[in-house]
Write a structure and sequence with these properties.
The chain is an alpha+beta fold and about 170 residues long. The protein is about 50% helix and about 25% strand.
Length: about 170
C-alpha cells in the first residue's frame, strides 16, 4: 500500500463518527468501582470506630474519594471509548490519558470471541474479542457492548471472512 493510499485509508477512519458503547456500560463500571472502593471505605469506618483519630478526619476524605471514583470516573472512562465497524475493518478507540486507536482489518482476523462475566451478564453486556494473526497485541477487546450487538458484530465479521475465503 502506498503512503497516499495509507493516508486516505486512515483519514477515512478518523472522519467517521465513533459508535459509543451501551449505556449500561456506565452502570457496570460504577459497580466495579464500588467493589474496588468498598474495602477502603470499610477500613476507614473501622479506623473511625476505633477512635484513633478525631472524628471524621479519616473517613470523610475516604468517602469523598470513593464517591469520586464511583460517580465520576466511570463516566469519563465510558466517554473515552468507542468503535467503528466498517465494511472491512473494526476500529477501536480507548483511553483517557494514553489514547489508543486500533484498526483491525478483517483479513487479519483468526477468530472471534464474545465473552460475558457475571456482572456483564447482569447488565446485558458482552465483550467482543477479535484475535488476529501475529504475536504483539494479537487480540483486541471491545467491552461494553449490548449482548445482541456483540453477537451481530461477530456474525458480520465472520460473514466478511467467509466471503474473502471464497
Amino acid at each position: 500500500m502506498s503512503a497516499a493510499e495509507h493516508e486516505n485509508w486512515a483519514g477515512a477512519d478518523d472522519e467517521r463518527a465513533l459508535t459509543p458503547l451501551a449505556p449500561n456500560h456506565v452502570k457496570l463500571l460504577r459497580v466495579q468501582a464500588a467493589i474496588v472502593t468498598a474495602p477502603f471505605v470499610i477500613g476507614s469506618l473501622v479506623l473511625e470506630t476505633a477512635d484513633l483519630l478525631p472524628t471524621g478526619l479519616f473517613v470523610a476524605p475516604v468517602l469523598a474519594a470513593a464517591a469520586w471514583v464511583v460517580l465520576r470516573i466511570p463516566l469519563r472512562r465510558h466517554a473515552a471509548r468507542g468503535y467503528d465497524l466498517g465494511a472491512d475493518r473494526l476500529r477501536v478507540v480507548r483511553g483517557l490519558w494514553f489514547r489508543s486507536d486500533t484498526v483491525v482489518p478483517f483479513g487479519r482476523v483468526q477468530h472471534i470471541d464474545v465473552t460475558q462475566g457475571p456482572l456483564e451478564r447482569g447488565f446485558g453486556l458482552s465483550t467482543l474479542v477479535v484475535h488476529t494473526a501475529g504475536t504483539h497485541n494479537a487480540s483486541v477487546a471491545l467491552p461494553g457492548l449490548a449482548a445482541d450487538d456483540a453477537a451481530a458484530m461477530r456474525e458480520t465479521i465472520r460473514a466478511h471472512i467467509k466471503r474473502e475465503m471464497l
